[in-house]
Amino acid sequence: MHVDIPQNLLDKCMGLSLSDQYWICPADRQVKWSEVNFFENDFSEDVGNILFGKKSSKRKISLLSPDNTSDGWLKKKWSISDGKRYLIKGGSGINRQEPYNEVFASILMDRLGISHVSYSLMMQEEEPYSICEDFVGPGTELVSAWYIMQTAKKENHVSVYQHYLNCCENLGIKGVVVEASCF
Fold this sequence. Notes:
With 183 residues, the chain is of the alpha+beta class. It folds into two domains: 6-133, 2-Layer Sandwich (Phosphorylase Kinase, domain 1); 145-179, no CATH class. It is built from seven helices and four strands. A hairpin with a 2-residue loop joins strand 1 and strand 2. It is globular and about 55 Å long. It starts with 5 loop residues before the first helix and ends with a helix.
């Protein structure tokens, strides 16, 4: 891809992602967010395909991709199918367990009647991947529980779940206990 520094990946896609609405509007261009955001506009799957080990036959790779701004350490890519955005995510280690765990958790949440993001399993070149539709849209953003829990130090006598609830309360996030009342 011939990218000297990671910042260039961010610049090439204007900081656009499928997990929030923040972006970098180039000073030398007259462009509106509605014209370029990945929620409503197509994006290149070149970067994602390269991350998944596919060689590109194109002379010039397009870096206009939400894959440049995806968080986390697992192999993942975004794809568009029938106008919907999907995250395809792999696993780690020999067993590649994470995709199976996400699908199992999805089935469990279905049975418990808990609102959740639905995951399914797909196999690609004999490797398991989980796939889910993007649950973030133009009016929402993703803030992971991990980031929320980093806002305060967890005391040893407090469970991880209670620490999460405490952090949510301190941040003014309401309704968390109601959504997770089965715990």
